[in-house]
Structures are given as C-alpha cells and as structure tokens.
Amino acid sequence: MRAVVFEQFHQFPALKDVERPTPGSGEVLLKVAGAGACHSDVSVYREFDAEHPGNIQPSFVLGHETAGWIEELGPGVTGLEKGSAHLVYGPTGCGHCRQCVQSRENYCENTATNPALAIGLGRDGGMAEYVCVPARNLVPLGEADPVAAAPLADAALTPYHAVRLAERPLAGGGRYALVIGLGGLGQIAVQILTALTGATVVATDTKPEAMERAAARGAVTVPGGEGQAERIRELTGGRGADAVFDFVGAAPTVELAKSSAGVGSTVVIVGIAGGTVEWNFYGTAYESALMSTYWGSIADLHDVAAMYRAGQIVPDVETFTMDEAPEAYRRLEAGELSGRAVVVP
Ligand code: NAD
Ligand code: ZN
C-alpha cells in the first residue's frame, strides 16, 4: 500500500510502497478515510534530531490525525462493527500510570520507556491506505463524515482541551478570549470558544485571509503591527483578555499574549515555536496564569466528536490524494493552505 513515510530527521517525508499491516492483539485495522497534516509534523522532520525522545525515532508513517472505517478486528477485539467510522485518539500511553488511568495518555508518566509517543509519532500513522490502532484508541463517529473529521484528532482536540483549561476566567458575562494564530488549530479554537462560552472572541493572524475566515465565524479581528496590543486592550474595555490562546508560540506572540492578558486571566501556550517571555511580579497582570498544554484526553475527544456531530465544529478542509501528500506538506510549510490539509488515500 502507499504511505507517507518519515524516514530520517531533517529529511522531507517520502511517498513509498509499504506492506499493509496486520492488526495485533487488541488492535483493529482501519481503512483510512482521511489523515490531516499538522504543523507539528513539520517540526518533527525539520527540527527534531536523535536527541529527541527515543520513542519518535524514524522511520514511520506520518499522520496523527486519522479517521477511517474498521476493516478487520485483531485477536481479542469484540464489540466493534466492521465498516463503522471512527476517529483515532493519537497518544499511546502505558495504560497503567496515574495519568493514563485518568484517560490522560497524552501526559503518560512512562513516555520515555513507551515504544512510541503516539500513532503517527514513533509508530505508523494514518497517512496510508490502512493503519493498525489499539481498539481502545477509537472514538465512534456514527453517521458523520470521516474525511472532514480527521483534523478533529488534534486540530480540535488540542484547542478543546486548551479552552477547558480557561473555563474559570471565561465563565460569566462580558468576557473576552484572544486567539493568536488562525491556522488548523486556531480556526477550530474560534468555533469551540463560540460554542462553549459567551465570550467575545478576538483573533489575530499575519494572514488577512485567515482573519477573514475567523471574522466570518464571528470573531473580532485585529491585524498585527504597531499598536496591536493597545488595540486589543481597547477592545476589552481596557481590562485585557480573560483568556489568551497562543497557537504560534513564537517570541512576538508570547509577548503579545502577556501584554494582552487581564487580571485573573489564563494564558495558554499551544504553539511549539519555543518563544520565551519574562513572567514576574512587575509588568504581569495580577493573578494571571501562564500555562502550556499538549494535546488532550480521549474523554475530551469524545466531547469533540459530539460537537462535530452536532455541527458546532466544522473543520475547513482541503483534500489531497495520496500522490499529492508531499505537496500538502509543502503548502503547509509555505503557509499557503486555506484549510487543514487532509490526505484521502
Ligand atoms: P498552521 O500552520 O495550520 O497555522 C499556523 C497559523 O499561525 C497560520 O495561520 C499562520 O499564518 C499563523 N502565524 C504564524 N506566525 C504568526 C505570528 N507571528 N502572528 C500571528 N499569526 C501567526 O499550524 P497548526 O497546525 O494550526 O499548528 C499551530 C501550532 O500549534 C504549531 O506550532 C503546532 O506545532 C502546534 N501544535 C501544538 C499542539 C499541542 O499539543 N500543544 C498540538 C498540535 C499543534
Ligand atoms: Zn501511562
């Protein structure tokens, strides 16, 4: 079968012919409906090296945002119907640590000794015609379209988890949420904030087209450049935002996040660009909390799937054939996509 393979650090992924996998004990074979291309994949093949955790060493098939239909049940798997559509929860924890037993496999305490970090990160993912996944990682989609659903596994799960972290400051009337970076994750963050909170969503991106799409979803957009932080503060009645979500994480965006944060706010850094900011008593809003977050729990993904089925999350998707998959990554890197790239094998 055809697959997009990450073969070596600092090397662009390649389209290859690989053997169709066979489900092991407790696994199912999925026929892939769609697999999303996440910006984190770019960091993995461009920036990571052998110093990074042993459990994401190449080579493996990319694709940690996958949806598909059950083709075959592995030994010991019961209660799942062939042909039914499912989303794949990516993280593969040890299953027995303090985090895993709370459904937080994304924060597994045994990451260093687990054979892989996640499906599509250290073990074969969904950018192929078929993928084997543990049955316990499946989230049912019912009758909903599995192609547009693929990005939910990360581009919706991660912002959903981030938004839930900021529930307290966003509860109540007249609240403001700031979303920085309106790509795959950011566009869905706007939708989740709209569905779950009454907050006014303020949004920014360097691309006017991305801001137009957020504006069409009800966000108040503020372009970058001089006076941006002042403009955001003005929009929030001078108080600053109650929650800030940074889907870039570069030095200028974490600085913007800090300067836009109001008293008692929550600032969540989601983007992995590694920018730093000074955070001390002086110049930081009182009782504001700065946190990072990584992916989400499988329980969160069930909530996300329910929101998708209810029409509250509608991912913008650009589909690519398997042959076009390298082009999808090229356009993702060049910032030329206007929706999440989903490879449809
Ligand atoms: P994307 O490429 O689809 O979107 C990034 C957006 O940010 C683009 O619209 C781009 O124009 C915008 N942008 C870039 N620089 C900017 C700046 N200085 N100011 C404002 N906007 C700017 O990427 P994505 O797939 O949505 O991922 C976003 C980030 O989140 C990446 O860093 C990715 O690695 C990370 N990520 C983190 C997690 C996690 O669990 N923490 C999960 C998935 C992705
Ligand atoms: Zn664990």
UniProtKB/TrEMBL annotation:
Its cofactor is Zn(2+). Pfam families: ADH_N (PF08240), ADH_zinc_N (PF00107). Keywords: Metal-binding, Oxidoreductase, Zinc. Gene3D superfamilies: Medium-chain alcohol dehydrogenases, catalytic domain, NAD(P)-binding Rossmann-like Domain. Signal peptide: none annotated. Residues 8-343 form the Enoyl reductase (ER) domain. Belongs to the zinc-containing alcohol dehydrogenase family. This is NAD(P)-dependent alcohol dehydrogenase.
